[in-house]
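From the shared-data thread, chain only:
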Amino acid sequence: MQQKNYNVIGVMSGTSLDGIDLAWVQIVTYPTYTVAIKESTTVVYTADWVKSLKEAVHFSKEKLQQLNIQYTRYLASVINNFIREYHIFPETIDAICSHGHTILHQPDQGYTLQIGNLPEIAKYTNQKVVCDFRIQDVQLGGQGAPLVPMGDQLLFETYDYCLNLGGFANISMNINDMRIAYDVCAVNTILNIYAHKLGKEYDEGGAFAKMGKLHAPLLDALNALPFFEQLPPKSLGVEWVHQTLLPLLEKYDLPPYDILRTFTEHIAIQLAIQFEENKTVLVTGGGAFNEFLIERLKSHKKIQVVTASRELIEFKEAMIFGLLGVLRLENKINTLSSVTGAERDHSSGVVWQP
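Structure, as tokens:
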């Protein structure tokens, strides 16, 4: 009989560069999957790391390899500090399940790169590590994203939709007993850039956006981008932000307040298109705290927004990567072809031993 209880550390770093999320979680696999967060924290990136991770999309192959080595060591030190700070007995840890940090994501070209997943991470932490969850799916012809919907299906099936508002917005839902999920649009990858121009790390509660003026021509241009006409499966990466969104926003040369107001409206419109009226939507991710964005979303579509606990909002992805790691250890499906477009469902992730 397979193990029924696991204690794992889920680790996630998102494209919004808010920091590294760590969650010490207990996972019960029988009779149904349940996950409880026992401890959690976010380790904020230093200015130097933010700079390196932002610029890495333009690095040469050799420079990326060096960054990968440095980041793997750094990530391991963050995990080790978490274990010490929360007095977690190393012998009680079944695995560390780490997403790494996405630098390049070009699934249409058969390529995705999450740094921090080198084999040495197991040696540095002296723990079994499950990581590199996306690469196998891309090799199987999939988008390699989103992966969290597997957790949505197992843990949150009572909600009509699960919406995550991070660097990008992605949603998942059941249609005809099949899980469907995809990226919708950029969120904090853009909002944080323009909040930073106003001296803040992010637009708290959407206050800056609320002060700005809506610029109709820019809004129309954003909503007319070809990505929004594509059918799922589809996913977004930081390349799209740099190649498409930022040049478009800079073309209009508007004050940051107006960019934030207009882009927030754009997000709300694109999200509203995805939902049926009078359905329940579980919202997580940093954007769940953007009250103005949620207000604008509800103005476009009559839905019941379910506010998750603060812990779930902030650590859902880290928690679910812990679950994905356990599924991989049990050789059970953790990646759905209906979500990513891969040729088949599969159990994704690399397992490194210390």
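The CA atoms of residues 174 and 180 lie 6 Å apart.
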